[in-house]
Amino acid sequence: MSDPLGTLDSPHARRRALLTHDRLLGRRVYVYAIVRFVVAGAIAGGALFGRYVAGVAGLDVFGIFAVAAYMAAYNVPIMLTAGQSLDSEPTPERLVTLRVVKHTATLLDYLALTAVIWFLGGVRSPFVAFYLFHIVIASTLLPLRAAVVSAFTAGAMLVALAVCEATGVLPPRMPEGVVLSTAPLEPSAIVTILLVYFVLFALVTTLVSNIAAMLRHGEETLVDQAEELERLNDQRRELLQLTLHNLQSPVAAAAMLMANLRNGLCGEIGDQQAEQVDKALRRLDSITGFIRDLGMLARLESDDLAGQTEPIDIRGMLDEIAAEHRERAAELKLHFTVSTPTHAVALGVPRLVREAIVNYVTNSIKYTPAGGSISVKANDEDGRIRVEVADTGIGIAPDKQDRIFGEYVRLAPKDPRLGKTEGTGLGLSIVKKCIERQHGRVGFASEPDHGSTFWLELPKPGAG
Q1: Which one of 47, 145, 402, 406 has the minimum C-beta count within 10 Å?
Q2: pLDDT class of 1 with cuts at 50, 70, 90
Q3: Which residues neighbour 311 within 8 Å (Cβ) at sequence distance 6 or greater?
Q4: Nearest-angstrom CA–CA distance, 293 and 287
Q5: Closest Cα partner for 149 from 299, 55, 358, 9?
Q6: Is the pLDDT of residue 198 over 80?
Q7: Which helix (H) or strand (E) holds 242?
Q8: What is the layout of strands, in order, in the sheet containing 384-391?
């Protein structure tokens, strides 16, 4: 059995680990070792079946058993060597050893196959086609040079069989029922068989190797693109951190100075001046919220949340959030209700879960016209805690529903029923990242003019 794992003769060989050719070499050699045991067993079982069940006369069961035992014998050290590299990436020294083992195994596999073919009719045996099987595998996963070597090895073995038969040095066995004829082959027939198989070997090697080369080139291109995207993403994170750092202090200072001016610390101001200052403060509040959202996104990308996860009392959290937002809902003439089971405990990062639920609640308040209702509830469903925020608001247009959790997507256009609504379009993307980073899920259902229901699910402590 030919092992399709070879060295990578390309200018990008320095990136083999990224392309998985060498990173999983030990595991692949190990898998082929397992398959090799199966093949050895199949050869032995096939010999018994052919001789004692199918009644094939002249079948050398003992000889075929010897080949199967030979395969099993050399396969043991192969499996042991490969097994040492299953749980970690191989070191450079280990890679050299694995490559030697792989190429040695390939040669031994060809010898075993040639011996089986000799027992089953030599060059006229239908089992010669198994050379093609080896060549296809090698051409698929090996670079062209190694695939050509594999094809030449198969050709050399076939020529050796033909020479032994033509000269009578080692005439093949001719079990009846395996080969069509046991009569000696004419030299022209032997040459024809060899030419046909050589053409097939060349065609298969060329075609399959070219396809495999294109696939490997595509893989390298994808890796290049992934590296470029990662580089751009790193630049984006750095720019985001720099922007936040340069914005936070001056915006906070401007807001403080404007508040001082509005509160009369710099002297009395007129009504018109006060109105302008109030507008400026509202805009600064909007900018502050945008900076806070950007900061949250930056922290979600960089923070390790595993150590911050703990059991969360969802009932208590929802009660607190309701208390904070019920007054605002009442000002807008909205009916606000909360219902939770007596015991609802989820596993997550409290500040992030709270951020997500608050975002749902504030969106519902923002996009529900006066006289509507908002309900917040929690349920225990199949080992997960599900929190739903439902409203009777204006709903979400169908053309926005497929990207609603994307960044910078606003929930609704201007609507005269709502008055002026402000937002950055980052809130729901923050919710999605917050919850999914905690092994949770988010979703929603909405219909224009009939409201929306946004939900999130988190695992319970101890849930598998």
Answers
A1: 402
A2: very low
A3: 345, 346, 347, 461
A4: 10
A5: 9
A6: yes
A7: helix 187-262
A8: 335-339, 373-381, 384-391, 451-459, 441-447
Whether residue 131 contacts residue 112, with contact meaning beta carbons closer than 8 Å, is answered with no
The C-alpha torsion from 394 through 395 and 399 to 404, rounded to 10°, is 120
Q: What is the DSSP string of 60-105?
A: -HHHHHHHHHHHHHHHHHHHHHHHTTSSSPPPHHHHHHHHHHHHHH
Burial (CB count within 10 angstroms: exposed 0-12, middle 13-18, buried 19+), residue 70: middle
CA distance 18 to 226: 11
CB atoms within 10 A of CB 295: 16
For residue 187, the one-letter residue type is: P
Q: Are 460 and 406 in contact (CB under 8 A)?
A: no
Map tokens 């939900």 to a residue.
Answer: 455
If we measure between CA atoms, which residue out of 34, 5, 9 comes closest to residue 21?
5
Structural domains in the chain plus CATH codes: 13-230 (no CATH), 306-459 (3.30.565.10)
Do strands 373-381 and 335-339 pair parallel, antiparallel, or not at all (unpaired)?
parallel
Tell me how far apart the alpha carbons of residues 7 and 13 are, in angstroms, rounded to a whole number. 9
Question: For 283-332, what is each residue's pLDDT tens digit?
Answer: 888 777 777 777 777 666 666 666 678 899 999 999 999 999 999 899 98
Residue closest to 454 by CA, chosen among 312, 359, 372, 348:
359
Q: Which among 71, 92, 107, 81 is positioned nearest to 29, based on CA atoms?
A: 81
Residue 339 φ/ψ region, left for φ over 0, alpha for ψ in the -120 to 50 degree band, beta for the rest = beta
Contact 376, 388 (CB under 8 A): yes
- Three-class secondary structure of residue 293 per DSSP: helix
- Residue 231 amino acid letter: R
Using DSSP, state whether 422 is helix, strand or coil: coil
Instruction: Give yes or no for a contact between 147 and 138, defined as CB atoms under 8 angstroms apart.
Output: yes
Phi-psi sector, 397: left (phi>0), alpha (psi -120 to 50), beta:
beta
Contacts of 321 (CB under 8 A, 6+ apart): 354, 357, 358, 361, 376
Question: In this structure, is the dihedral angle defined by the CA atoms of residues 52, 57, 62 and 68, taken in order, positive or negative?
Answer: negative
State the helix-helix crossing angle for 187-262 and 271-302, rounded to 10 degrees: 150
Angle formed by the axes of helices 92-119 and 25-52, nearest 10°: 10
**pTM, entire model:** 0.52
Report the alpha-carbon distance of residue 320 to residue 322 in Å, rounded: 5
Q: Which amino acid is at 425?
A: G
Neighbour count for residue 231 (Cβ, 10 Å): 10
The conformation of residue 460, written as its DSSP 8-state character, comes to: P
The whole-angstrom separation of Cα 354 and Cα 336 is 18
Span 77-129, pLDDT tens digits: 999 988 887 776 777 788 888 888 888 888 898 899 999 999 998 888 888 88
